[in-house]
Amino acid sequence: MGTTTHVSAGRRRRQRLRRTLLVTALLVASAATAGYAAWHGDDDGHTSAAARPSSNAPAGGRSAKQAKQSSAKPTPKVRSTSSGPSNKAKGSAANGFQPVVTDRIPTPTTSLALSAAVPGTTNMQAPAAAAFTRAFADARADGLTPEIRSAWRSEQWQQILVDRAVARYGSRAEASKWVLAPLKSAHVKGYAVDVHPQAAATWLQAHGAAYGICRTYDNEWWHFEYLATASCPPRQPTAAG
Exposed e or buried b for every residue in 214-232, given b needs 16+ CB within 10 A? Predict the structure, then answer.
């Protein structure tokens, strides 16, 4: 009899232990579920105020989770094409021409040799390249054969041209009438073209303003720049002014 009582007491202790473990497991699972819902905003009882739907939301509106995702979505930034006076080209862009960014030098074409002639409008400012392309197409329609002898130049190549001009003309001041320093050159900045033959340059001088293109120096019949204006300013005697 004593043995039976001992066995029954042991069985009861095991049953109580199993019940305790079961209840503990259920409590842990319930807490985990509530925590997961609170983390993802699915449980109104645990969602933060910032994630709850507004009282002004339409009937049948978004869930707290959707509101939280919407409010966290950053507003896209819009990049302006004309951020200020320092970024505008010479001349006015109020007449429909797209201005170039004259203080931004295009990315170099590293595949070209330093002294290689850059073909066509490679590396030019996009609006300038488009303007010269349209103008040359119309010049060809008029029976001319315009050529680009020089357009965009790297800073390194421009400096070589400057050094050659100094050796040729005897002084930097005299050389600057024909070749500007890299940081001043419209070729380096990507909006100047040297046009050949002279007949094509004459056509461009007469019609270029319709494309925003102007001849800028008296001593260089071949040099034209995209100025984004339909009214060309007076030409300078030389590149030095």
Answer: bbbbeebbbbbbbbbbbeb
Interatomic CA distance for residues 202 and 175, integer angstroms: 25
Spell out the CATH class of 85-226.
Answer: alpha beta
Those residues of the chain that have pLDDT short of 50 are 1-3, 32-93, 110-111
Q: How many Cβ atoms sit within 10 Å of the Cβ of residue 211?
A: 22
pLDDT digits 0-9 by tens, 65-113: 444 444 444 444 433 333 333 334 344 445 678 776 655 555 555 445 5
Outline where the chain has alpha helix (H). Answer: 2-40, 64-72, 126-141, 155-169, 172-175, 186-189, 198-207
Domain boundaries, the chain: 2-72, 85-226
Cα separation, 11 vs 19, whole angstroms: 12
Output the DSSP codes for 176-214: TTT---TTT-HHHHT-EEEEESHHHHHHHHHHGGGGTEE
3-state secondary structure of 224: strand
Let me know if 47 is exposed, middle or buried by CB neighbors in 10 A (0-12, 13-18, 19+). Answer: buried
Alpha-carbon distance 130 to 141, whole Å?
A: 17
Q: Which two tokens stand for residue 134?
A: 């349209």
